[in-house]
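An instance follows:
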Amino acid sequence: LATGPRQNNSIFYEIRTYDIKPSKVKEFVEMVNKYFHLRTAHSELVGCWSAELGAMNKFVHVWKYDNFAHRTAVRHAVANDKDWQGKFISPALHFVEKQHTEVAYLVPWCQLRKPPKEGGVYEWVTFQMKPGGPALWGEAFQAAINAHINTGYTKLIGVFHTEYGLLNTVHVIWWNESPDHRAAGRHSAHEDARVVAAVRDSVRFLESQQNVLLIPLQCSPLK
């Protein structure tokens, strides 16, 4: 079950995760930076990152679509783009060990934001919540996120909940100036009674959590 409010428009985000063969990571990054402009000619890339901590040899990219008809049209165009297929897809298939895709919506109380400046790091936090969707855990989860925002320990980029893929999954993207800045903010949050109280209330609905530190690629709009 996954019920509850979502954004009022039909815009959604496709989250694609690739696991790359360890020996091919450097070559894959070079190809992405060199040829991803061929793909972004067809639809909007929100961000593209490589995992630094919490996962290995993993790449995450997020695409924005107006609706499902838009995605279908884009996928058709991409499949018929000879440059994209020949220069990137064909060689990249030999690098990829596994692919995973999800469709997610922004939660209705969150707008996708940009970091205050370039050059930082991103923390991708995945929460697996109890079945029931935002109608069950939405208010408590929002309060926990707002507690972190209001204290200023980190910058929120976006909050997504899944529509396709593993349901009741929430992805939260945070931005920090550096890994050390993130560590200091995390330490302060753990000692802040406002954050502790909000988190204690929300974890009643939490089943698991994973944190990954991401580094934006050169071609990523979010840097």
About this structure: Helices lie at 25-40, 68-79, 82-92, 134-151, 179-190, 193-202.
